Amino acid sequence: MKVNIGVEIGAKFIQAGIVDKYGRLLARTKVQSKCERGLSEIVEDAANLIRQLLSDKDLELRSVKSIGVACPGVPDEENSKILKTYILGLYNAPIKDELKRHFANIPIYVENDAHCAAIAESAAGAAEDLDYSITINIGTGISGGVIIDNRLYTGLNNAGAVLGHMVIDKNGRKCSCGRNGCFETLCSARALIEDTRTAAEKNPESLIWKVCENDLGKITELTAYEAMTLGDETGKEIFRCYVDNLAVALTNLANILMPEVIILCGGITGLGEELLKPVREKMHGWVYSRETTLPALKLSEMGSASVLVGAGMLAAYKKK
User: I need a labelling partner for 287 at 20 to 30 A (CA). Which of 2, 149, 207, 296 fits?
Assistant: First the structure.
């Protein structure tokens, strides 16, 4: 049996998985990242995970067709480096060369993690059999990937589709990138938590305090919504503003690219239609071609496996 290996290098964990040609995750394993140790140790951990997977499945190294590596940051297409990733603290990191020391005869590909998630949704998830899709991950920050004509779009020098840094409000909150009002400063989990905490401090009578058990450290991206369901006006206003900002961002993407589907993933999407319905209603009033053409808005079907599966399918996408 021929298989592909996907590797995901994240801030908390390094994962490896066996992926078949249909985008099915056959096995996975992980260890803590400990990124402060440097690139060589990170890659050493990844190599050991790959060997462990193959051993557990009684597979020989020659059964591996390719290895795909996903991590945050901007990849250098030509040299398969990660030019910079603030989350991992790596700069000009030659991931491919390091991994080649362990697997010299296996093709290795490196790509941004959000782009890998978009590949997975396109190949075997919510955008399967579609040619145009956008996948957006709403986490601590916001990242995403764009599929055009069933191919991953990355732009000039592989530096395009940085969706989280689309400016929504130029007078808004300062972003880690140095600008103001980026998409992720308004709609990431971190932003929503910060907005909820600030509102609670200004409104001591708010039911947000009840939901978080009078401990601001327990506030999550779902706290404002939970307070709203209890009839809290402060929670309702926070959620309304969040929906508006998310709808503005998605409308911009729809007007520019008009995908067949926009796919959302991340903790806040656990609300399901309670989130999608009001966002969809806003978009239906704002998208320029709303009378004839609107993108579908869906939740991820790949869930937490999306990045790993997409990494495992990099070889197929790079050859398109």
Answer: 149
Distance between CA 264 and CA 204 in Å, rounded? 33
Is the model's pLDDT at 269 over the cut of 90? yes
Q: Tell me the CB-side half-sphere exposure of residue 66, using CA atoms within 13 A.
A: 20
Sequence-distant (≥ 6) Cβ neighbours of residue 184 within 8 angstroms: 141, 142, 164, 165, 175, 190, 191
* 198-240 pLDDT per residue, tens: 999 999 999 999 999 999 999 999 999 999 999 999 999 999 9
C-alpha pair distances (Å), 192 with each of 7, 48, 280:
30, 38, 19
- Give 127's contacts (C-beta < 8 A, 6+ positions apart): 121, 133, 135, 147, 260, 261, 263
Alpha helices in the chain (DSSP H): 39-56, 95-100, 113-124, 183-187, 189-202, 208-211, 223-229, 233-257, 273-286, 306-312, 314-318
How do residues 34-57 score in pLDDT, each as one tens digit? Answer: 777 888 889 999 999 999 999 999
| CA 5/CA 64 separation, integer angstroms | 7
Measured CA distances, 132 to 15, 70, 254 (Å): 28, 22, 11
What pLDDT score was predicted for residue 294? 92
For the stretch 154-163, pLDDT in tens is 898 888 899 9
Return d(Cα 111, Cα 122) in angstroms, integer: 16
Which among 118, 33, 160, 30 has a CA at the least distance from the CA of 309?
118
What is the three-class DSSP state of 198?
Answer: helix
Tell me the whole-structure pTM to 2 decimals: 0.89
Q: How far apart are CA 149 and CA 147, in angstroms?
A: 7
Structural domains present in the chain:
3-111 (3.30.420.40), 126-301 (3.30.420.40)
Separation CA 67–CA 265 (nearest Å): 25
How far apart (Å, rounded) are the C-alpha atoms in residues 112 and 159?
Answer: 10
* Position 129, amino acid: D
How far apart are alpha carbons 196 and 213 in whole angstroms?
A: 14
